[in-house]
Amino acid sequence: MRKSLLAVLLLSVSLLFASGSVEIFSWWTGGGEEEGLAAIYEVFKAKYPDVEIINATVAGGAGTNAKAVLKTRMLGGNPPDSFQVHGGMELIDTYVITGMMEPLTDILESWGILDKFPKDIMTICSYDGEVYSIPVNVHRGNVVFINNEILEKVGIDEVPSDGPGFLEVCEKIKEAGFIPLSLGDKDKWEAGHLFETVLLSALGPDKYNGLWDGKTSFEDPGIERAIVIFEELIKYVNEDHAALTWQDATRMVFDGKAAFNVMGDWAEGYLKTLGWTPGVEFSWMAVPGTEGSFMVVTDTFGLPKGAPNRENALKWLEIVASVEGQDAFNPIKGSIPARLDADKSLYDPYLTWSMEDFSTNALCPSIAHGSAAPEGFITELNDAVNIFITTKDRAAFLSAIKSAAEDYIY
Amino acid sequence: MFHIKRKTKRGIISFLILSPTFAAIGVFVYFFIGWTGRTSVSNWNSFARLLKGEFEFVGLRNYFRLFEDPRFQTDLWNTLYFTLFFILGCLLLGIVLAVLIDRNLKGSGIFRNIYLFPMALSFVVTGAVWRWIFAPGILPSNPQGMNLLFSLVGLDFLQWRWFTSTESFLNFNFALIPVIIAAVWQMSGYTMAMYLAGLRGISQDLVEAAEVDGATGWQIFWKIKFPILRPITLSAMIILGHISLKIFDLVYAMTGSGPNNVTDVPAIYMFETTFRANKYATGSAIAIIMLLMVAVVIIPYLASAFRKEKRI
Q1: Which of B70, B142, B164 shows the shortest C-beta gap to A242?
Q2: What is the DSSP letter of A215?
Q3: Which of A46, A166, B59, B289 could form a disulfide with A288 if both were Cys (CB 3.0 to 4.6 A apart)?
Q4: Measured between CB atoms, does B136 come within 8 Å of chain A?
């Protein structure tokens, strides 16, 4: 008697949860991100008012802390209903190969929207011909954000789009008493991010992409060249970089202390929440030497096996995949929609520029943001960059990159 | 006969009452220590291998690699110096404050509370606050926090890069100094409370007898009070020692690993290798090394305490 009562109770509790809620796991807590997430939640609530959203967020730049929490939950058999993950190796190597995700190809086909996404992006999110996550947005990693006022004061009309020219401009800005390039690498990945854009500029998009499928060797002299350029570049960085986060660094541009900041274009969303208008107080360009390449950082949502509220998770994924959802989220977050049929008029001048490049440029997966290489490689690379910034030991840096590649890429 | 029976009965009852606790500790503490040890000698250095659970014994390979790893070597030096200065700082400050407050001057009760308050904060809060205080800003044009304060009162020569500095001496990274200051600020109130309890427990007769013999205040403290406080010093060292050997939250919130890992500690490295790089075997090896370090400090203390208990 008691046992059956307990069973009924348990069942009703689980039913209650099944119809009532959906747990969405992400690391969107920063300026611009949080508001964007709230906007897409609104779309969800309007369509499914009876489903309660449990907003499970873990703060921390680029999801460094959230990923650790997620891994523990996944390992412990307690997955959220759907979680944010960077498309690419971060998803494939960690969760798909290990058999923790449900394939979504059939579901996308049944919704009739599989062909609404660009093929390259879906390839990043796929393994063995099956799609495993739905991209909600695309960020560009290789962007320089520019404080227009400082350039005016120093008397620079145009920032050159080649590496050496850019360094000359940096020198001028430094002489004028401003910080040329702001960096905040307390969490390490920010320095890795800067390095990967330099690596892209030294190798070019084809060779860079070749690193990940074995077509380019890690013995390529381009890597050594990247290290030399990187060493030149960090001479123009604020000296308290190790005490700052990426937000602090972007804020230095906003505060009129630094002229440039190399960051993914979530920094654009951040600058907007601080009150700036794109094109007025700040402008932007591709990182010098990487024009024509688009460093892709894509946030995606997948469906873990054993999601407690699978039905609601599918409802959520449908919103994530919809034009409506993507157009609510992206203009605020400061990213471009992954869908090709989104409403372009909703996006600000920066994002329109980015959408234009996205459809014409060579697409390159980001290392620091989990698309290009397994997480073990990223950690070792970030560590090596961090050490190099202090020691300036080129040979040690190069051999660290090579040994990380040996461990994880080959 | 009856007596013995009652004793066994009581023994059985106490065993029954205690057994859930023993079982819980056995599983959740000792079993998992064992499991961590097992993982540390495995090849589980990727998520896939861990999940498949294919155990391959690799001996002490993970440990050997760690000791060759420059980052881990830095970590060990950092732990050593951090522990040393943290314990010394807490003990010195603690005893000075305790002696001052023990004088029962006016308002000493208020100060006792003020010194104790930092202990009520979590290390994460302390870390965030001291990060703002010691954030160097850009010197000399745009100082922040402490440096700004120095420039306002004209002590510019004291400005320093604090926890972003990369200078070192005999493997002691100077960037640790701000972290040590924050940790001492937090825990010295605790040692003060311990010493205060000790001082209050010293019989007044002893002090008076010494005074009659013509001892000075300093002699009374150094020759009488301080030796009596020795067990307290030992307990404080043990408690502070195990905190500092395992420290994670304060450093993580305050400085992170720092440039060239100048403020890195084994716990942060363990966290990164395990949860970011998915190298569970290496992470477990770091955990076991940390456990051994703490054991070196704790076990002799426990052994001596145990012996004393038996004697009583």
Answers
A1: B164
A2: S
A3: A166
A4: yes
Residue holding tokens 């992170």? B256
Q: Is A209 left (phi over 0), alpha (psi -120 to 50) or beta?
A: alpha
pLDDT tens profile B155-209: 888 888 889 888 889 999 999 999 999 999 999 999 999 999 999 888 888 888 9
pLDDT (tens digit, 9 = 90+) per residue, A373-384?
988 899 999 999
Contacts of B46 in chain A (CB under 8 A): 374, 376
Question: Which secondary structure element, helix H or strand E, spans residue B168, and what is its range?
Answer: strand B168-169
The ipTM value here is 0.83
For residue A115, what are its two tokens? 């062909």
Chain B residues 263-292 within an 8 A CB cutoff of chain A: 271-273, 275-279
Q: In angstroms, how far is CA A328 from the centroid of its own chain?
A: 18
Angle in degrees, 0-180, between the axes of helices B108-116 and B70-102, rounded to the nearest 10: 170
**DSSP letter, residue A344:** G
Nearest CB partner across the interface for B135, out of A243, A257, A390: A243
- To the question of pTM greater than 0.95 for the whole model, the response is no
Q: Within a 10 A sphere around the Cβ of A147, how many other Cβ atoms? A: 26
Q: Do B255 and A93 touch (CB under 8 A)?
A: no
DSSP string across A110-146: HHT-GGGS-HHHHHHTEETTEE-EEEEEEEESSEEEE
Check CB contact of B173 with chain A, cutoff 8 Å: no
- Both structure tokens of B28: 């959740």
Q: Distance between CA A200 and CA A209 in Å, rounded?
A: 9
Residue in B293, B279, B281, B280 with CA at minimum distance from that of residue B62: B281
User: CA–CA distance from A399 to each of A223, A394, A408, B277 (Å)?
Assistant: 11, 9, 14, 19
